[in-house]
Design brief:
2 copies of one chain form a homodimer.
Chain A: H1 8-21, H2 35-42, H3 46-58, E1 62-65, E2 69-72, E3 85-86, H4 89-95, E4 101-111, H5 114-120, E5 127-137, E6 140-150, H6 156-162, H7 167-174, E7 179-190, H8 193-199, E8 206-216, E9 221-229, E10 236-242
Antiparallel strand pairs in A: 1-2, 4-5, 5-6, 6-9, 7-8, 8-9
Helix pairs in contact in A: 1-3, 2-3
Chain A binds a DNA duplex (19 and 19 nucleotides) through helix 3.
Chain lengths: ~300, ~300
DNA sequence: CAGTGGTCTAGACCACGAG
DNA sequence: TCGTGGTCTAGACCACTGT
């Protein structure tokens, strides 16, 4: 019973998706079978099925209503997602049926700038490929993309042979290194004269700028990118959820903690005699487990 | 053993957070106790503990490494979050230790415009409160916020008494209706003369604009807001994850599905004799279970 | 190899919504 | 009251990592 491949939950999610797409699963009111029924039908435990449903819910395909049932989401053909889903511009365009192609492209091997090395979490004198290009939709420039990748992640041959506009797609296709997430910062910026020329806009026109670091599953940054988007051509959105961690106003004190036992941390002698409050500032970035999340919304007055 | 209140997992997450903050849980390398140890220490099952850790991981507080352990994230004092966490500007400012207060505020009761009614998913002639104000940091205007709320969600007394700058915080404090998520669209926009005057900028200066609809747990939209942010004062980011659903390039076929049984949907006779492929287009929005996710990144060439 | 996190199961009970 | 999704448990086995 070798497993290998995607998790059971993911397989189940895709099976359900198929069932929805073909119309075999949901009634015309969009109601899916109950969790018990689905789990039996798919031959998985209810826990696994729920994990699958969670994935589908998180991508917005279904909606769950306590005490009622699980429904197929309304809206256009099952297709998904906002900014929180990491995908390339090319994939986005293909998915939404829009023509897009690469305009002028400039690949250069050089030493990383200070900012780039910082963003990648690497010591300053590191060699990188810098890829700059314009993306067009029809004849109109709609985005200007810059990627900076350490040369040990991508070699020049691969880059020149397999590159068709997206570094992300290239890495995903190769499957190595395994990618996990991207930390993307958003801001508005006025077009510089150079950018304006490349994108055929007026200098000073507002652009949406995304600055991203791409991380592998083991926390290494492998791509630093800056992207400019001409307004009106793209619509980016995010689903913002109310925090699962924030206390529900007024704060609540232990009520179950009194009869259960969720209070073992600061009270009785710890099983692990750990150190004092000494702030963690050991300056080794070598086995740093994340190396670059954090510091998210900062305000500078 | 009445429960009431937050889930066990959430309590556990907060306990762990406390343990991290006080420095009692992690060694100076940031390594937390193993899941087995933690679950025993907190008196919860490992499954529940893992749910708690997942919440912490999702907010970026910890990093998990298969075969190694769970680590406290690097970065400044534990404090979190990007755009995917829904919080008010006031909360953000307080959290980051920045002074912020409301400038001129204008509350008006009127009939919703077509755009507003559409965004709220309500029939056109509906009465709303429109709240417009400038947010200042020190003396500098840093954001311009507009909220539109149906009058049946908020009554004038509450609005005038409890409003201190954030409609979101007002609703969260009241706890009713229960909020779930916000669908937020981002774009860059040049400041109009009016906006420029209110924010003491030059007309044409680039602004980041967030357009959001706020939804309750039962899928009703209760707030439509447009927010403009002066560049340089805020940093917004998003964590973009590689899709859990997308096949890992090349697609994979059943490999476990052959010995397990994840294939019950399109093959043998379904337990539920459901309808044909007839597209679901029944035009009733009444009991629509989501009414407003979807259509995310669209491109208009 | 031992120890860690990752996945999965079977079963239990609770909370919610509708008839 | 009944059926739904929501939470929790105890235990099992797997896959990854370091030694």
């Amino acid at each position: 019973m070798v497993r290998r491949g995607p998790t059971l939950a993911r397989q189940a999610a895709l099976e359900i998706l198929d069932g929805i797409r073909s119309g075999e699963l949901a009634g015309e009111d969009g109601l899916l079978p109950s969790e018990a029924a689905l789990s039996q039908r798919l031959g998985v435990s209810r826990a696994t099925l729920r994990e699958a449903l969670s994935q589908l819910e998180h991508s917005g395909m279904i909606v769950r209503r306590h005490g009622i049932g699980t429904f197929v989401s309304r809206g256009q053909p099952l297709m998904e997602s906002g900014l929180e889903q990491l995908e390339s511009l090319e994939t986005l365009a293909r998915r939404t049926g829009v023509d897009s192609h690469m305009g002028q492209c400039d690949i250069e091997e050089r030493v990383a700038t200070r900012v780039e090395a910082d963003a990648l979490g690497l010591p300053a004198p590191v060699r990188v490929f810098a890829v700059e290009r314009v993306m067009l939709s029809g004849e109109r420039p709609v985005a200007y993309l810059i990627d900076v990748v350490p040369t040990d992640v991508l070699d020049p041959r691969q880059l020149r042979e397999s590159f068709h506009g997206s570094v992300l797609d290239l890495l995903l296709e190769r499957g190595d290194p395994p990618l996990q997430h991207s930390h993307t910062e958003l801001c508005a910026e006025a077009a510089s004269p150079e950018l304006a020329r490349a994108m055929r806009l007026e200098p000073g026109d507002p652009l949406l700028r995304l600055t991203a670091q791409l991380y592998t599953t083991d926390g290494r940054a492998v791509d630093y990118s800056v992207s400019y988007f001409s307004p009106g051509h793209f619509r980016f959105h995010v689903i913002r959820r109310v925090s699962q961690l924030a206390p529900p106003s007024g704060g609540w004190t232990t009520d179950r903690a009194s009869d259960r036992a969720v209070d073992g941390i600061g009270k009785q002698g710890a099983a692990e005699p750990n150190a004092s409050d000494r702030a963690r500032e050991t300056g080794d970035a070598a086995r740093d487990p994340d190396a670059g999340d954090r510091e998210l919304a900062a305000v500078s007055p």
